[in-house]
Design goal:
The structure is a single chain. By secondary structure, the chain is α+β, with helices and mostly antiparallel strands. Helix content is about 55%, strand content about 15%. It contains eleven helices and eleven strands. The strands form three sheets. Strands 6-8-9-11-10 form a five-stranded mixed sheet, covered by helices on one side. β3 and β4 form a beta hairpin. It is elongated, with a radius of gyration of 48 Å. The two termini are about 55 Å apart. Bound molecules: adenosine-5'-diphosphate (ADP). Adenosine-5'-diphosphate (ADP) binds next to α9 and α11.
Length: about 450
Amino acid sequence: MKNISIKWKIFLYLIGFCGVLLVMLWLFQVVFLGKFYKDIRTNDVKAAAKTVMENIESKELGAILLDLNRSREIFVTITDENNKTIFGDDANRKIESKQELIKERRPPESISFTQEVTLSSGKKITINSNAIITPVNATVTTLRIQLYYITGFMLLFSIILALVIAKRVSKPIEKINESAKILATGNYQTVFHGNGYKEINELSDTLNFTAKELAKVEGLRQELIANISHDLRTPLTLISGYAEAMRDLPEENNMENAQIILDATKRLTTLVNDVLDISKLQAGEQNINYATYNLTQSLQETISRMRELVKKDGYSLNFVYEEEVMIVADEKKLAQAFYNLLTNAINYTGADKTVIIKQLVVEDKVRIEVIDSGEGISAENLQNIWNRYYKVDQVHKRAVVGTGLGLSIVKSIIELHEGEFGVLSKINEGSVFWFSLKK
Ligand code: ADP
């Protein structure tokens, strides 16, 4: 059933439905018609007998009996104790003559129902109700022929209906499938047109959204490659240039130049590590090594190391906290997330070259804030900075390795820890990047 097209499936369902309907029609109209008819007649006779009995002493009795005779072909005779007919001679004759008529062809079937009643005068009478059952054979033959036509018509109708419905249902699906195939080849400009019904409209909306997202990621990916190549090339050029100079010119063979080469190598290492980390985090390959440790001390260590690094450029890092906090987390990963926020803050902070780090305890959570006095982030960029490869500006303001991966690494790590994170920032008013975890 899996590979049957929608057209045939609908057709099969319709045929099934028609089949059930036809079988029911055949059963009721042909097979059981006689029995139904007999049952109905029996009930009729019983009802007539009841009416007669109820009106046995009424003046209307004559009219009632006549009416039963005429409209329902039920013949009632009433006899007394001596079997003498009180009423119904006429009617009886009628029924007998009718029976005579039919007898020649086929013995007629009739239903009779006898009841004994005692009148108020003490007289006992017998009511005998009679009805002939007309043979239904002729009717059945007619119905059967009619049913042949109906069956044929229904089959034809199902085929046409199945074709029409299938076309309406499957056409848009086929169209979407074609567009999806184009999308799969990497053409992210593909537009999905779904019309016809709600589900298809929703499907094509979803696919349009997917295509848009894919296009975005593709754009970012290409940008990343461009950025990374640029970021790789700059230090590499530095390294090879300086190394060559040191090899060829003895006076260039000094400590400063060696330091430049070392710095460039460090930058390359950071870049390569970032790329590796994010791809591992995103592939879900990294699992967390939970352990209880002193978060405050760990932050302090990262800050001290960083302080040493940026001291010569005049940056100051202030760590504010009230108490030391122990948490259960992956120390290495959290330190990396914090390190990324710290690097960003240093890179983007304002002229005062100050970054404040706050550790706050709110109820059962510990919240880390990294505050800078930089130019902030616009509202529209705020939504995107946590995305992979996203960078607000293409130009690196400082000699910073900016891959656009730092924040998405933070995001992945905090999400792994089931913590919360965010940023408060306004243009020209600095930024507060924060994350919070259960103590
Ligand atoms: P990058 O390697 O470019 O810093 P991130 O993922 O760390 O990548 O950051 C993404 C973007 O968010 C950055 O390009 C920058 O524009 C912006 N951003 C991050 N931190 C700050 C900050 N403290 N102040 C202003 N902008 C920031």
